Amino acid sequence: MPNCENCGRKWQWKTIVSKTLKLTNKVTCPYCGKPQYIVPKSRVLTGFFSFLPTFIIIMIGMIFDINVWQVLLSAAGLLLVFLAIYPFTMKLTSEDKSQTFI
Ligand SMILES: [Zn+2]
Prior knowledge:
Elements: H1 13-20, E1 26-28, E2 35-40, H2 43-63, H3 68-85, E3 90-93
Antiparallel strand pairs: 1-2, 2-3
The protein binds zinc ion (ZN).
The site of zinc ion has 8 residues, from loops.
């Protein structure tokens, strides 16, 4: 779990997830009130986690003869797994470095 770069306190899992769902990487620290930016710990890891669910769903669809609802259900399940793991792959920084990822 990431630590605030300003005050060094560890953020809670739900803080990362709830802020991430707002589709912003700028998050105010709940402890010291300073803005922090969520950055991927590793670009490879983030790419892996965004690619893996899609890959698994396609593989499941190819191997098993399942209908669209089962595929959607699998996708929803994988999304939950992704959300559970995602905060562990993040770190926080006081500077917005997101432009370097474009
Ligand atoms: Zn802080």
